[in-house]
């Protein structure tokens, strides 16, 4: 279990207070460089905390970031992630590979049987 990174927390809190800012404006306001701000926005988008949409201002396209209205009251510093997405995907892939190779649950060392059951159907036998 881990907390959300400080950069993502800063971006989320600033986007909540000031909606419809571009990633550049968020980075400048929060005080982090643009690349880290872009990564933090992408991370928050992946988790579903913020949305972004393309708009045109002064004949230039820009990506505006805003917090989803249902999450305006969320305190992101209290959010704890159970496990990384890559770790969960890797475990699911390993379980699927194991079932394809061995076809038996009896010898499989696994932590979460439900995840394995929904990823693999047992009616192939």
Write the topology of this structure.
Layout (H helix, E strand, L loop, with lengths): L1 E2 L2 H12 L3 E2 H8 L3 H14 L2 E8 L2 E8 L12 E2 L3 H18 L10 H7 L6
Antiparallel strand pairs: 1-5, 2-4, 3-4
Helix pairs in contact: 1-2, 1-3, 2-3
Pfam family, one: HTH_24
Q: In words, what does this structure look like?
A:
Pfam families: HTH_24. By secondary structure, this protein is α+β, with helices and mostly antiparallel strands. The chain has two domains: 2-81, Arc Repressor Mutant, subunit A; 85-119, no CATH class. Helices cover 47% and strands 18% of the residues. It has helices at residues 6-17, 23-30, 34-47, 85-102, 113-119, and strands at 2-3, 21-22, 50-57, 60-67, 80-81. The strands form two sheets. Strands 2-4-3 form a three-stranded antiparallel sheet. The longest helix has 18 residues, at 85-102.
Descriptive terms for the model:
125 residues, two-stranded antiparallel sheet, Arc Repressor Mutant, subunit A, 5 strands, elongated, alpha+beta, 3-stranded antiparallel beta sheet
């Amino acid at each position: 279990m881990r907390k959300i990174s400080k950069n993502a927390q800063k971006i989320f809190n600033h986007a909540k207070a000031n909606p419809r800012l571009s990633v550049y404006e968020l980075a400048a306001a929060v005080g982090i460089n643009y690349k880290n701000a872009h990564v933090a926005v992408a991370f928050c988008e992946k988790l579903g905390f913020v949305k972004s949409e393309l708009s045109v201002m002064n004949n230039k396209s820009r990506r505006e970031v805003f917090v989803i209205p249902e999450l305006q009251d969320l305190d992101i510093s209290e959010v704890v992630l159970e496990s990384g997405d890559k770790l969960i995907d890797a475990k699911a892939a390993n379980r699927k590979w194991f079932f394809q190779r061995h076809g038996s649950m009896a010898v499989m060392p696994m932590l979460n049987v439900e995840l394995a059951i929904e990823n693999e159907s047992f009616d192939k036998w």
